[in-house]
Amino acid sequence: MTYILAIDQGTTSSRAILFDADMQRAGTAQHEFTQHFPQEGWVEHDPEEIWDSVLRVCREVMQSVGATPDQIAGIGITNQRETTVVWDKQTGEPIHNAIVWQDRRTADICARYKQAGCEDDVTQQTGLLLDPYFSGTKVKWLLDNVPGARDRAEAGDLLFGTIDSFLIWRLTEGCNHVTDATNAARTLLFDIHKGCWSTEICDLLDVPMSMLPEVQDCASDFGKTTLIGGNIPILGVAGDQQAATIGQACFQPGMMKSTYGTGCFALLNTGPQPVASKNRLLTTIAYQLDGQKTYALEGSIFVAGAAVQWLRDALQIIETAPESGELAQQADPNQHVVLVPAFTGLGAPYWKPDCRGAVFGLTRNSGRAEFAKATLESIAYQTRDLWHAMQGDWGADTDVILRVDGGASASDWAMQGLSDYLGAEVDRPVMQETTALGAAWLAGMRAGIYPDQQQFAETWALDRRFEPKLSANDRDAAYARWQRAVQAAMAF
Ligand SMILES: Nc1ncnc2c1ncn2[C@@H]1O[C@H](COP(=O)(O)OP(=O)(O)O)[C@@H](O)[C@H]1O
Ligand SMILES: O=P(O)(O)OC[C@H](O)CO
């Protein structure tokens, strides 16, 4: 038997999935790791804990399936994007915890650059906005705040990487400092048109270019590892949202996927030409194969499934995530409670890092069920914000079918609500591990055991299509309530 090992290093857990030669899942291992919140708005991960969790899940999945290293034809890595690690080139030791994509500590740095009129130029080159979400200002913060870091970086002793890059450095025991084009495209330091690091932006943010990894195609040779036995090549890398776009086979311009994990990330394939957004979406690289870039418009929402976790962990009104749908179903249809889950600011298309969450429309009778309903509906409303912005930029009509995945897409109630509030069809595939599948396909195709792009696209299979049932009037009235709630939350 031949396998591909996909490593999915996500925001809350690390997963390893073995796919067999038919691209079927043979086994999965998963471990959650600690989320550190040292100050309000700060989110960190311990890179050593991430590293340990990755090695552990790789070994566990191999053991559970009974796969030997010589049966693994290649490794595909997909990862939480933007999360920033800086480490010592000699020892491989991180100089600080990883600063996670959700972290808002660089909001003031971004505001200063914006006031100085830098945003247009940065957006033109990177497709991104001056928001703390992206890696660039996080690297700057580390160099300016960790004692001695700037001198060490300028002396060429420190390296920067997103999680993929850090994992490859560790897996190859310090031989390879590399990343792929999709991860590079999320750093705020990469010119997505020229396909190289931007000297101008590195100067602007005071990031020495000697720290930056080499950028490769998504399916290429990233080095070999002996750390899980054998000598296994790493052949595929993509940021997790891009890997899901690949796993959902959104290979044609106009195809769109939306992933509902911790946050929600919608990517619309726009083909070989980048589309500059007029509606504050991001322009990003969907994938780069054989040196050819395919671009996407992306809408990034910071809190989707995380709001369900909030119901479970902070409010304690559910014990498990799936209960949210059961509870929402029991809500009083005459109450219009609206939750704006801006727990870590608002992402696309608002980009308000300082905004915080709010609940509107409470009555004496509002209870657990209404909170659950408002939480799941907030996922749909936020997607509609993105949907409108995408239509404005791309001119897509309502016939566009949305392919969904991620943990919260398992909720029939939430997906029906999504279809209702979008007024569009929503397709959920049989294969729920689209992110890992995307990374596995990149590696398997490179290894020569998986089919080409077109044949791979033909293997996509529908689990369920959700069709809109709400009248246009009810849909528009509900969305108008959401828009008023967002404006009020931003004004607070
Ligand atoms: N049945 C469900 N209904 C609603 N939300 C769910 C359900 N199952 C999982 N979730 C949410 O999905 C998220 C986990 O999805 P996952 O794709 O594993 O996320 P990530 O990769 O960001 O860690 C959690 O935030 C959880 O609250
Ligand atoms: O790890 P996830 O699934 O929450 O995805 C995080 C995104 O990549 C952040 O941009």
Automatic annotation (TrEMBL):
It catalyses: glycerol + ATP = sn-glycerol 3-phosphate + ADP + H(+). Its EC number is 2.7.1.30. Residues 257-445 form the Carbohydrate kinase FGGY C-terminal domain. Pathway: Polyol metabolism; glycerol degradation via glycerol kinase pathway; sn-glycerol 3-phosphate from glycerol: step 1/1. Residues 3-247 form the Carbohydrate kinase FGGY N-terminal domain. SUPFAM superfamilies: Actin-like ATPase domain (SSF53067). ADP binds at residues 11, 15, 262, 305, 407. Sn-glycerol 3-phosphate binds at residues 11, 81-82, 133, 240. GO terms for biological process: glycerol catabolic process; glycerol-3-phosphate metabolic process. Gene3D superfamilies: 3.30.420.40. GO terms for cellular component: cytosol. Glycerol binds at residues 81-82, 133, 240-241. InterPro entries: ATPase_NBD, Carb_kinase_FGGY, Carb_kinase_FGGY_CS, FGGY_C, FGGY_N, Glycerol_kin. Keywords: ATP-binding, Glycerol metabolism, Kinase, Nucleotide-binding, Transferase. Inhibited by fructose 1,6-bisphosphate (FBP). PANTHER family: GLYCEROL KINASE, SUGAR KINASE. Belongs to the FGGY kinase family. This is Glycerol kinase. The gene is glpK.
